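In these records, each integer encodes one residue's backbone shape. Here is one protein:

___
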Amino acid sequence: MNTPDKDTPNKKTINRVIDGIASHDEAKQVTEWFSTTVEGQAYLSALINRDFHLMEAGELEANLPIIAISEKMLENIFKTIRRKKIRRYTWRVAAVLIPFVLFVNLISYTNSQVNLFGEPAYSEIYTPKGEQVRVFFQDGSEAYLNSDTKIRYPKQFGLFNRKIFLEGEAFFKIATNKNRPFIVDINNSSIKVTGTSFNAKAYKHDELMEVALQEGKITFNTPQHSYSMLPGQLALYDKKNGLCTIKTMVNSSEASMWKDNYFIFKDTPLSEVLKIINRRFDVDYNIRDTRALKYSYTITTRQTSIEKLVKELEIITPVKFNLNNNVINISLK
């Protein structure tokens, strides 16, 4: 939940809190801003990135005491004191201890809101066959989930990354944050994003995994290699042999047009067409004549009705689709 603009502290107030000279109300305002807003979390992330190098890139263990990671901050405070030429010893002690205590308390409180150190609690969403779901994350990112798709995500994103788990197909629009990359974990592979839009298709039983980048830049990490992708590129990863092919798409938006009820088949075998229909409409199929499997389909059509879709498919090949009691019987005309 975003805090109204009138409650957003100015830089001077934030610095007063960090310096330990703020009032109680100012400290409370800054703490709440750090803990409950996307802007505050990004500011705090940049602040800690500057002073807490030991916390970055997985170098901090989850159970490491807070005081043990504060040495960098204390060094910077001492440098500031020397630079300002404060001579009285008692004032130097106060200048160190007050910011230190406030900052440790601030981190402790923020940890309960943002999950700085502990293991996150996860939520899970499953989109059944025949349905599609739009999901909004707490950082402003969003995802469109295709049929038969499951995602698992933390109730509170970590301070240094935003990691979710995907099984199925989804189109993502990721809120930009260079300090907190968005990571999509997919079947021993992952996609690392700082702010972009892309489509990921990774159904559990499919041999191929597909990642199509529409805008921005991503890194597609497989168990064998890492691939930096640019807009308009499609990565096809064979999970069985570990080979990945990067192709250039003519229309980068085609990969995600399923969310607008488009079906795009390009020399697609009937077996794959039936698999897609099964997911999108939650219908079973029965192949009565195996000779029908030799046919493939090339068509782009927008349909919300399975009856209209199979009628269009029947125009292309001599294959007959007979829908009866939620089962499609496949035969030749």
Q: What stands out?
A: The chain has three domains: 5-114, 122-254, 261-332. Residues 5-114 form one domain.
